[in-house]
């Protein structure tokens, strides 16, 4: 009877793995347009104040707020318009008591003025505007450095870039951004029973349609990597040894599915010096890792759990990504028992503050993944959660 | 004084807009590998039972569970191995009382057997295995149709495809999937004050670095679309008319930033027959929509809010996407006052069940978007929320 001598506790295995990997040093500079979802390689400092000076936030009239404090609809205040400028121009005039300067959105505030009346709110007659209501000091003015200050860190290393992050970079003058090179992730799928194309006869005879590769490619893409698929390799010791060697050379990380247990044909784990083999996670216990290679299960659900519990964190470490998970609080709609000594990965459907555990079991049951949108983790020392317990759901 | 005669309530404007748009009919068939994040064009029905027959979920020995009920470590049950098959083969043998068949993961269950003993749990000696513990009926067996049944809808129209969805499609024999064509979204940015390249002199003179285009391109990509950028157009009536006409012809949707208010140079809204112009949202009130064209603000924060409150839902309608938002429940860390009559878009930082409102105001303040990871909405009839109130956060 061959089994794992010892199951490495989940957290211990994760630490071994993360300690073994280091952030990839390569940085690539990409146009902002191609940077969505990429991971920022270093802190970004603003080269300018933004806005670079006090400016109007609207089209309207720059004025002295104090001139308008007595303005009422039945007794408007009249101001003389002493200058009119268009967008991108600057007024040389100084706003003295009783005067105003017409300007556009983004125009530099003229000297003397401390507020802007929106154009739509002014009644204009020749050189005069009538103000019907008081304007507060600072109203409709965007102050210099109000958005970001020169020298300020505006984005931090590890940020996964979103549309608004790109806008901020652009607004202070950047057209490119330095991001981490995408880690190359070799994917090797092993198993004599696997076929790639639909074949009713073969399925009847016991073959299985291989689905791990398309899933892993998608997961690798979601978590910053570039997948490289090495195809389905038969359960042949030499073939597996050869492809693992090659994939190791050509990639930052290698994922091998199948061959992680101790069947007669489980070869993959023999060709890697493993830091751990067999951990307390459920499903997915027979996972091994060493030399940047993961030896994973053959079952899609186990592979999915192994990816989220281990591989995802490895990829985040390689690129230095922060905040790469969406973790939300939820109330369980029913109890979830868990085996002591196992770190359980429980699929749930999260909606409106509630997490409903997906009951379908079995590591071949891909539909259970499809019916879920997140997972909870139940550590080794817990027998599970009760209905109504508040848990953390990681969304996917 | 020119202003909006009436602000259309948020929900009314949204309904007008969604009623005006219809789902785009075109469907494209893409390889599974290219389908991540695409929107499923129709329900998908499984052409097969999966698994196609009862099969073993592990490498091991198929047996009759009842033969093992008396098995104890100190008094093992012995079974005779009458056949051995490898992956993808089928046994012709029938498992009679006292016998077992050695098989592999995925092997068809031989007649007579109703459970599988994992190989690692069996002590083998020649033709005999010793079973040390009882095996439950059904243990380690994946039953026919257990994952999905032939004819069953396995994925629904509108699903945004995830890695596990692709795996399910592959596991029942698909290599391609029909998804909606990506809507083409024309982006037109207007404003004399805008520059595309960093230029210190120009900035000092009142110019502004344009940042809406890169943000909108990113947002459009996040929500199923393909952005087409028409560049920065000066505040010239003819130029704006021409580019809007062209963009309308070439796209499913057009986003115009700038020119939505009533300044002298706000031309854009004059060239579109608007269904509404001016709504109760804050920020972003001066938004107009008609003829598949959005006339949006010039300010990045207002544009961002307008996108999430209106454009995102329009794009989802065009492709028929479901579940395109991550909505989570959260407790507010402090009170958020809101103006009656306005539908407020409040940026928050969501973490661990709590939502912290981002105080920075001003529609030019892009850093306020960067510091947030979601928003809450406060409808017109509410004066806001108190500290401790439970709200729904839409994550971004």
UniProtKB/TrEMBL annotation, chains A, B:
GO terms for molecular function: molybdopterin molybdotransferase activity. Keywords: Molybdenum cofactor biosynthesis. Residues 186-317 form the MoaB/Mog domain. Pfam families: MoCF_biosynth, MoeA_C, MoeA_N. InterPro entries: MoaB/Mog-like_dom_sf, MoaB/Mog_dom, MoeA-like, MoeA_C_domain_IV, MoeA_C_domain_IV_sf, MoeA_linker/N, MoeA_linker/N_sf. One of its GO terms (biological process) is Mo-molybdopterin cofactor biosynthetic process. One of its GO terms (cellular component) is cytoplasm. Pathway: Cofactor biosynthesis; molybdopterin biosynthesis. Belongs to the MoeA family. PANTHER family: MOLYBDOPTERIN BIOSYNTHESIS PROTEIN (PTHR10192), MOLYBDOPTERIN BIOSYNTHESIS PROTEIN MJ0666-RELATED (PTHR10192:SF19). This is Molybdenum cofactor biosynthesis protein 2, MoeA. It comes from Thermococcus cleftensis (strain DSM 27260 / KACC 17922 / CL1).
């Amino acid at each position: 009877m061959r089994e794992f001598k010892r199951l490495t506790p989940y957290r211990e295995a994760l630490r071994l793995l993360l300690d073994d990997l280091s952030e990839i040093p390569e940085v690539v500079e990409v146009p902002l347009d191609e940077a969505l979802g990429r991971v920022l390689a270093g802190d970004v400092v603003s080269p300018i104040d933004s806005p670079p000076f006090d400016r109007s936030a609207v089209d309207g009239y720059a004025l002295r707020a104090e001139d308008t404090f007595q303005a009422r609809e039945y007794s408007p205040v009249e101001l003389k318009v002493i200058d009119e400028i268009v967008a991108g121009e600057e007024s040389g005039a100084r706003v003295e008591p009783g005067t105003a300067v017409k300007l556009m959105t983004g125009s530099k505030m003229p000297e003397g003025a401390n507020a802007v009346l929106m154009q739509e709110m002014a009644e204009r007659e020749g050189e005069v505007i009538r103000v019907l209501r008081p304007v507060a000091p600072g109203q409709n003015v965007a102050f210099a450095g109000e958005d970001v200050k020169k020298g300020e860190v505006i984005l931090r290393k590890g940020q996964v870039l979103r549309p608004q992050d790109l806008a901020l970079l652009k607004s202070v003058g950047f057209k490119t951004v330095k991001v981490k090179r995408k880690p190359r992730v070799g994917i090797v799928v092993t198993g004599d029973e696997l076929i790639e194309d639909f074949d009713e006869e073969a399925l009847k005879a016991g073959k299985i349609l291989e689905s791990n590769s398309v899933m892993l490619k998608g997961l690798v893409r979601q978590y910053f990597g570039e997948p490289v698929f090495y195809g389905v390799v038969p359960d042949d010791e030499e073939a597996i040894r050869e492809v693992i060697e090659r994939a190791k050379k050509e990639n930052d990380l290698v994922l091998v599915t199948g061959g992680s247990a101790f069947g007669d044909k489980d070869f993959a784990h023999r060709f890697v010096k493993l830091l751990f083999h067999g951990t307390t996670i459920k499903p997915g216990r027979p996972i091994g890792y060493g030399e940047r290679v993961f030896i994973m299960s053959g079952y899609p659900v186990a592979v999915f759990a192994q990816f989220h519990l281990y591989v995802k964190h490895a990829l985040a470490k390689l690129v230095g990504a922060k905040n790469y998970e969406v973790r939300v609080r939820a109330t369980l709609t029913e109890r979830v028992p868990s085996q002591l000594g196992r770190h359980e990965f429980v699929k749930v459907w999260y909606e409106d503050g509630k997490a409903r555990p997906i009951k379908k079991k079995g590591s071949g049951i891909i539909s259970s993944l499809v019916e879920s949108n997140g997972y909870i983790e139940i550590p080794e020392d817990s027998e599970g959660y009760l209905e109504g317990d508040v848990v953390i759901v990681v969304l996917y």
